[in-house]
Description:
InterPro entries: AAA+_ATPase, ABC_transporter-like_ATP-bd, ABC_transporter-like_CS, P-loop_NTPase. The protein is of the alpha/beta class. The protein folds into 2 domains: about 1-40 and about 75-80 and about 160-205 and about 210-249, 3-Layer(aba) Sandwich (Rossmann fold), CATH 3.40.50.300; about 95-160, no CATH class. The protein is built from 9 helices and 10 strands. The radius of gyration is 19 Å and the shape is globular.
Amino acid sequence: MAYDNFVVQRDLTFDIKPQDIFIIMGGSGCGKSTLLKHFIGLKEPAAGRVLFRSDEAIGQDGSEYVDFWQTQDSKRQALMQRCGVLYQSGALWSSMTLAENIALPLGEFTDLSPSDIKHLASLKLALVGLSGFEDYYPSEISGGMRKRAGLARALALEPELLFLDEPSAGLDPISARMLDDLILQLRDNLGCTFVVVTHELASIFAIGNNSVFLDADSKTMLTTGNPNDLVSNCESETVRNFLTRGEGG
C-alpha cells in the first residue's frame, strides 16, 4: 500500500473466510481505510494481489481465485456486484428518500420492474429495523438510523461480502451496540461475510471473529486472528496495549 513513493504498509498476507466478521484494526494513520479501498476497487495496490474466490460466472479459466486488480474490467465489475459497502458517513443521497437511495443500485444493476424495486427497498429497510421509514429523507432521521439505512442500501443487491468503514463512528454507545447486534444477525441469517474497519474496542470484541492488526511504525501487519484471543495470546506488546487501552494483558 503506497501513495507515490510513500509506503503505508507492506508484506500483508491474510485470509478472510466465508461468514467471517473480519476486523481491520490498528492506530490512526496505519492504513485501515486505504486497505479497504484496495478491496472495493477505489485504489489499486502498489504491489501484490487481492484474490477473490471465483464462481462459475467469473472463474472461466477454472482457477479457484480471481486476481481482482489484474482481471478484465467486466469481471471486476461482476465481482463488485457480489459486494456491498457502508461508508463511514453513510453516504446517502440527501435529495432522495431512504427507499429511493436503496432503489438506485437495484435500478442500475437489475432488470426488476419499478414495483418490484419498491417492494425490495421496503424489504431491505425492514431488514435493518427501518420499516415505515421509506419516505423519510436522511436529514429527517438520526445518525444511527442513517447508518442502518446505509447498510440497507449495501444489502440491496444481496451481496456475499459487506465492507464497512467505521460503522460505529459518531454513534452513542447504545446505537453502536444495536448496530453491532444487527451485523451479527445479518451474518447469521443471511450468511454474509463482513470486513469491518474500526478502532472501537467494544465492537471489535462483540462482533469480530478474525482480524488483522496494521502498525503505522513498522509499516506492516503485526498479527492476525480472533481479537478475543489476541488480548492474552499475542506476542506483540503493541497489539496487547491497543486491545487493552494500554493496561496490558
